[in-house]
Amino acid sequence: MMKRLFSLLICSSLSWAFSAHADTWLPPEPVLVHAIESSPGWQAQLAQVQAMQARADQIRHIDKEWSTQASYGQRRNRAPWSAPAEARTREWSLGIQKETRWLGQGQAAEHASDLAGQLGEKQLEQAWMGQVKELLSLHQNWLSAVMIERSWSRQMGITQQQLDGLGKRQTLGDAPRVDVMLMEATLAQTQAKLAEARQQVRQASSLLRARFPNWPQTPPAADASLMETSPPTPSQASLDTWIEQHPDVQLAHAQALFQEANTQQVQAESRPAPTVGLNWAHDNSGRERTWTVSVSVPLGGAYRQAASRAAAQDEASAQARYQQVVQDVRQALETERTALSSGYEQWNQESLAHARLQAVVQSQSKGVALGETSVPDLLVTQRQAAQQEADLVQRFFQLKSQQWNWLADTQNPWKRVQPSTAN
pLDDT tens digits for 316-327? Predict the structure, then answer.
């Protein structure tokens, strides 16, 4: 059984530009998209960005509202005894006023609002990639736990068969009791490993279900094979394109553009705009009626100048951060490519080493049957091979996780459905 399993490990290499559609360890792309869109974590991030976009829309409608004012009063005068009505007069007034904007302030605010909306979209794209990577990581942990559990389950079946065979040989007087006891101890150890592996499956499944309730946890097929994958060897041109399209770079660029527009808006707002008003007054019990137009202009101060300087510093910081993010993403992609190459080589070496060790186990098993090899020697080699098999399964899915991360960072086939935000 183990020989058949690891004959599948050394398979023909796949191209580095593998497609998510062809990956048998993943469900179709729409399933992944639906699982993320319906997850509580994504819904929270979506609502947060939509709230930010709604606040950014306030910039577009930053014009001050009209304000109204009304007053009523009575005036008491010293009137002669011949005109008592003059001793008390009624007065009231109505007025409206509004703070205006200079030419260019409205355009600057509208431009900043547009870029704030684009910034929100880039934030959603970055958050989506984070969700994709988290889901793939949890899925990889669950797959690894399932396949390791299967590995120890097969090992326990093999050990049980060996114990049954030794029991029959002891009954016939062809095997000492100590060999049976050693095999029983090995079976108990394998059962403990199997119990631990099953606990790991339950934990990985529970965590995956908690974060992404609609993700299908369909166990791999019984004959699922582990296949090696050749490392990526992209050209420099493709690497530059991937860097430019990376969500982190796109977000940093959008932040730099928004800060530039915000600086322009703050500088435009630093010029105080006048407030105009219109008043209608009714004085002296209606004998006096007046219309007045008022214009007031605030005097500029240090506060507006400080806000303008702060916005300029924010713009410079965003530009520098954008350049740094480009370098960070380039370094991250280079590191991922190197890790995939070394992981591929390590996978080949470990696969080859295990295949050779498994051949030794098969030879020693025949030797035990022929009385040429002791049971303790077989158990030592077999225990080492079993642990190596579990480690090899774990190494395979670590390599798969690296491949999926590389695919998400470069080609990103798991894009969210548009539009996902409010208008």
Answer: 999 999 999 999
Q: How many CB atoms lie within 10 A of CB 319?
A: 17
Strand order in the sheet with 288-296: 67-76, 88-99, 275-283, 288-296
Asked if residue 75 lies in contact with residue 93, where contact means CB atoms within 8 angstroms, the answer is no
Q: What is the pLDDT of residues 322-363, one digit of tens each?
A: 999 999 999 999 888 888 888 888 888 888 898 899 899 888
Specify the amino acid at residue 73. G
Note the pLDDT tens digit of each residue in 279-330. 888 776 666 788 888 888 877 667 777 888 888 898 899 999 999 999 999 9
Token pair 């559990």: residue: 149
Q: How many CB atoms lie within 10 A of CB 116?
A: 21
Dist CA 167 CA 152 (whole Å):
22
Q: What whole-number distance in Å separates Cα of residue 155 and Cα of residue 395? A: 19
Cα–Cα distance, 123 to 132 (Å, whole number): 14
Residue 276 near residue 295, CB atoms below 8 Å: yes
